[in-house]
Design goal:
This protein has 12 helices and 12 strands. With about 350 residues, the chain is of the alpha/beta class. It has a single domain (about 5-190, about 225-255, about 295-320), classed as NAD(P)-binding Rossmann-like Domain (Rossmann fold), CATH 3.40.50.720. It starts with a strand and ends with a helix. The chain binds nicotinamide-adenine-dinucleotide and thymidine-5'-diphosphate.
Length: about 350
């Protein structure tokens, strides 16, 4: 029996990883550790919250002592670390919170895991610390550049990517210095159900539905490489179990889109599903001031992961975006709930009595 802590399990990607592990591994004990910031929402996990192999713990990853105690009490074997502040625009306004959670929080988990695992007779045998990171640590590509490879030097630009790069370095340092069995993966932009509607895809689907303006940064020519979130969760499962210690794996779907082209696909899909004439919502496109330091292009080469562990994306983009648009249109109550802050108040009262 394995006990695994998944941090950030109430967030977008984390909730898909928790669901996959709880359903696929009934013999594991899955502990979802999350502070429930504005981005954490236990409603994302309603379908599995009563499973006997699932437990939720409300905790800040920066709370070293509480986490050490949890490692000890629960005899934790593995950590899959997703908890983070994740939105670039917020990091531009409030970089301190990003340094605190993403850098100090990761360091705090590493140090607690080190002290606990080194206290055991078997030490690091059968243990694993897996850090989920982003392709944004590699910086920005020009339009004709080669894709990001695992060997591409780090060159982060935003406070978000700088904080993730720093945490990746700490994770590798714990392997190189103390022999901790660590793995880092760097993934491209994810999309799919349960993403907080501050990110491009859910924000724009919601705005199209409500005929609100679609704020396109700059000329809309920046390129992102999109992966369906359940494919990322499947990759995390494969890498957690079969990935080589101290390795880095890039995860992506070879699926680059210029923002404006992707926005037009979303408009077309929402209009079709809502029964509007084609092109109805094109007038919502509103070009606004560019994001400071806006990275031109991200594009990831995940061929190592396919070659070494046999993973590849299961969904074509057309299918993924259709599923995603339908999910947000059918789950307006979820969107209203996360934007109103009701869920936040409810869980604050439930877990802290405030
Ligand atoms: P998210 O913002 O949706 O969720 C983050 C979760 O972490 C939330 O549940 C939040 O409550 C929790 N959290 C935040 N601060 C915490 C703290 N101090 N202590 C405990 N919990 C805390 O993020 P996401 O988009 O699901 O991203 C998850 C991870 O994947 C992040 O590490 C991110 O850097 C990485 N990543 C994201 C993408 C993407 O496209 N979203 C791509 C590559 C990598
Ligand atoms: P986002 O979803 O914030 O992810 P990231 O910045 O981590 O790639 O943004 C995706 C792209 O969409 C990025 O190039 C910025 C752009 N964008 C807009 O043009 N308008 C918006 O309102 C948002 C949120 C993003």
């Amino acid at each position: 029996m394995k006990t695994i802590v998944i941090t950030g399990g109430a967030g977008f990607i984390g909730s898909h990883v928790v669901r996959l592990f709880v359903n696929k591994y009934p013999d594991y004990r899955i502990i979802n550790l999350d502070k429930l910031t504005y981005a954490g929402n236990l409603n994302n996990l309603k379908d599995i919250e009563d499973k006997p192999n699932y437990k939720f713990v409300k905790m800040d990853v920066c709370d070293f002592e509480a986490f050490y105690q949890l490692m000890h009490d629960e005899k934790v074997d593995g950590i899959i670390h997703l908890a983070a502040e994740s939105h670039v625009d917020r990091s531009i306004k409030d970089p301190f919170t990003f340094a605190k959670t993403n850098v100090m929080g990761t360091l705090s988990l590493l140090q607690a895991a080190k002290l606990y695992w080194e206290s055991l007779p078997e030490r690091y045998e059968g243990k694993r610390f897996y850090h989920i990171s982003t392709d944004e640590v590699y910086g920005a590509l020009e339009f004709n550049d080669e894709l990001f490879a695992e060997t591409t030097p780090y060159s982060p630009h935003s406070p978000y990517s700088a904080s993730k790069a720093s945490s990746d370095h700490f994770v590798r340092a714990y392997h190189d210095t103390y022999g901790m069995p660590t793995i880092v993966t760097n993934c491209s932009n994810n999309y799919g159900p349960y993403q907080f509607p501050e990110k491009l895809i859910p924000l724009f689907i919601n705005n199209i539905r409500h005929r609100k303006p679609l704020p396109v940064y700059g000329k809309g020519e920046n390129i992102r490489d999109w992966l369906y979130v359940e494919d990322h969760a499947r990759a995390i499962d494969v890498i957690f179990h079969e990935g080589k210690v101290a390795e880095t794996y890039n995860i992506g779907g070879f699926n680059e889109w210029k923002n404006i082209d992707l926005i037009k696909v979303m408009i077309k899909t929402v209009d079709r599903i809502l029964g509007n004439a084609e092109g109805t919502s094109l007038d919502l496109i509103t070009y606004v001031t560019d994001r400071p330091g806006h990275d031109a292009r991200y594009a990831i080469d995940s061929s190592k992961l396919k070659r070494e562990l046999g993973w590849e994306p299961s969904l074509q983009f057309e299918e993924g975006i259709e599923k995603t648009v339908r999910w947000y249109l059918e789950n307006q109550a979820w969107l209203d709930n996360v934007t109103s802050g009701d869920y936040q108040r409810y869980y604050d009262e439930m877990y802290t009595g405030r």
